[in-house]
Write a structure and sequence with these properties.
9% of the residues lie in helices and 43% in strands. By secondary structure, the protein is mainly beta. Strands 1, 4, 6, 7, 8 and 10 form a six-stranded antiparallel β-sheet that branches. The chain has a five-stranded antiparallel β-sheet with strand order 2-3-11-5-9, with no helix packed on it. The protein has a two-stranded antiparallel ribbon with strand order 12-13. The longest helix has 16 residues.
């Protein structure tokens, strides 16, 4: 009985924690020759810092109170649900806009969709944000955007984009999403 229980626990742990983060350098530990996190792009006035004593992976802010934004390109599989999640906090009043966005051409124009691109106020305590993303049409481009609209310092940790845990229904061929968002 004890061995079976241990095997079941190991399988569950692998299923829950074994999902690969598709963001390389999600904690910004790898810094390029230009001083910016490898794989990420940012506007000229964006300030990026790595690490912190409180578990912070990285901090984003803008010079002279101006908007700061960094982006990271992502390529997701069609019709596969993904989870976009992160923890964030700020020390001062910060208006932020963080999202995963993709677009594709349709009838001569670009159509845009996102995980939710509304602006909101960051809290002073760590808070987890999570959204499900599903590409249902062929995209021309996808990216993550992290943005401080008023330039205030925002701190991040545990930034992840990974396939959602799903279970296929053998009878219908449909999918059950095993994630809460």
């Amino acid at each position: 009985m004890g061995k079976r229980f241990a095997v079941v626990v190991c399988i569950i742990c692998l299923a829950v924690f074994g999902q690969e983060n598709i963001i390389k350098n999600a904690d910004w530990k790898e810094i390029g020759a230009n001083g910016a996190p490898v794989g990420w792009s940012g506007r000229e006035n964006s300030i990026t810092e790595h690490g912190g004593d409180d578990g912070t992976d990285f901090t984003l802010s803008g010079k002279d109170g101006k908007e700061a934004i960094v982006t990271y390109p992502v390529k997701l599989e069609l019709n596969v649900p993904y989870i976009f999640s992160y923890e964030m906090k700020c020390a001062e009043e910060a208006m932020v806009q963080n999202y995963l966005e993709w677009h594709w051409p349709e009838n001569g124009a670009e159509v845009y969709r996102s995980s939710g691109a509304a602006k909101f106020h960051a809290t002073k305590e760590w808070k987890t944000y999570k959204a499900m993303v599903l590409y249902t049409t062929t995209t021309t481009s996808g990216y993550i955007a992290l943005r401080s609209t008023n330039g205030a310092k925002i701190q991040f940790r545990n930034l992840v984009v990974r396939k959602a845990r799903i279970r296929r229904d053998e009878g219908t061929g449909g999918q059950w999403n095993l994630e809460s968002v």
